[in-house]
Amino acid sequence: MTIAVQPRPWRRFLALGDSFTEGMMDDLGPDGRHRGWADDVAVALARRAVERGEDGIEYANLAVRGRLLTQVVDEQVPPALELGPDLVSLAAGINDTLRPHYDLDVAATSLDRAVRRLRAGGADVLLFAWGDPARRSAAMAPVRDRVRRFNAVVEAVADTYGCYLASFWLVAAYDDERLWAEDRLHLSPAGHRLAARTALAGLGLDDRHWRTPAVPAPPASRVHKARLHGRWVRVHLAPWVARRVRGESSGDRVAPKHPTWVTVTPG
Question: 3-class SS at 191?
Answer without folding.
Answer: helix
